[in-house]
Amino acid sequence: MGSIDTKASSADYHERALTALKDKSLFISDAFIDGKWKSSDKTFPVYEPSTATVLGKVADCDLADFQNAIKSASEAQPKFFASTTGTSRGALLRKWYELIIQNQDDIATILCLENGKTYAEAKGEVVYAASFIAWFAEEATRAYGVTIPSSTPHTTLYTTREPVGVCGIITPWNFPAAMITRKVGPALAAGCSVVIKPPSETPFTCLALTKLAVEAGIPPAIIQVCPTKNREAATELATNPLVNKISFTGSTGVGKMLAKLAAGTLKKLSLELGGNAPFIVFDDADLDLAVEGAMFCKFRCTGQTCVCANRLYVQKGVAKEFTAKLVKKVAALQMGPGLDTKTTQGPLVNKSAVDKVKEHVADALSKGAKVEFGGSAPDNSGFFFEPTVLSGVTADALVSKDETFGPLAPIFEFETEEEAIKLANDTEFGLAGYFFSRNIGRAMRVAQRLQVGMVGVNTGKISAAEAPFGGVKESGYGKEGSLYGLEDYQIIKSVTIGNQDA
Ligand code: SIN
């Protein structure tokens, strides 16, 4: 495995990158409230993870800012819905999509700097993010109602779909662009307004996307952005009666807290929470395909995705061969700063993320696991941890219960299909699950028995604008993207027209 390019990691790394932006006005540190960019005396720092240096300081919104944003979004939303059609909202989204694509290099640079993922991954994320806007530009025109045969004579019964209203959007740092667009796209398509609390680790991408949304012609008060580190202020989104819906992606702990707070005003909720994805390799699998799948869904974003393979269950007969093949690929990863073209594995987001990987590795080793590759954090200033493969991991290891959210591939061995399913389902989480097998019967059986919201069979890649994204159990509820994504931002109204003979 390659070492870190210390030249690229020097303190002026991000300054040089920001100077090279084609449109420097996309790097914004203000909030966007009531249609105006708003600076603040109070700011918080955002770090560049490969050097652990401050990338910039962003306006730290307070309670009054959130209240103003919510009030303004609430006044603007009915006018927006009344003055647009699905087709015209779709056209606005399409324009926003085009601007994102035109500015993809700059957005990817900003994203790469604040998140740490490689530039190639950042570019991929910008295109992925834009695909949700394109998808919901189309879906905006498909908000069908139904006519229902009434059981009462001389009566017509039909349904319409209306926007839920003001949506509080709370997003994570691991996908600074895609988690914004996967929520804001359907919200705007439905005719809602949004107040976004972007992640405090990665607010710059959201602010750049917002600038492009306004340039696309989306009415300014329909999209409001309140960056903050102030938990009390952000809580306003979950308690203010003018907010009708919360969409949150993040940890199960925070999701449960938001659900309790939102219960006070019975807000509609979409919660995309933690995962603990099993990745099962059966002895009838194509092992090269399985390794390719593991590389993608374990090491994408340095292991920091909710759908990451967290537990690799490999059938005993193929465990040695699979491990050797995986180690060969992992050893070829090149750790370094995201903007360095040689880098194929970026840093983690912050120090506590590195500490969690260290804890999971130490715990697994103390219970008998063996390091096949990696296993430690390099001695430098950035938030790096070596891509790591452990074998012989046991069911009592911390990593079997808790998602690492880092570049650790722990290999557990199993003997039978029944055992693999039992182990895979032995968790309170149920976001994603993967397995590899060339047996069609087994493929059908296991896909049905895994207690998750999303299954990858012979692939580690399950995310796309058209694919329903969301979990079961304590991984949350609601579906994002796909033909279901718009519904989460709508209410169904029924209209009964009676006494038509009168
Ligand atoms: C997530 O980690 O929450 C999102 C991952 C994805 O969209 O693939």
TrEMBL record:
Reaction(s) this enzyme catalyzes, per UniProt: succinate semialdehyde + NAD(+) + H2O = succinate + NADH + 2 H(+); succinate semialdehyde + NADP(+) + H2O = succinate + NADPH + 2 H(+)
Domain called Aldehyde dehydrogenase: residue spans: 38-495
Regions that span the bilayer: none
CDD domains named among the record's database cross-references: ALDH_F5_SSADH_GabD
UniProt xrefs under Gene3D superfamilies: Aldehyde Dehydrogenase, Chain A, domain 1 (3.40.605.10), Aldehyde Dehydrogenase, Chain A, domain 2 (3.40.309.10)
Pfam families in the cross-refs: Aldedh
A single cellular component GO annotation: cytoplasm
Protein name: Succinate-semialdehyde dehydrogenase, mitochondrial
Organism: Aaosphaeria arxii CBS 175.79
Lineage: Eukaryota, Fungi, Dikarya, Ascomycota, Pezizomycotina
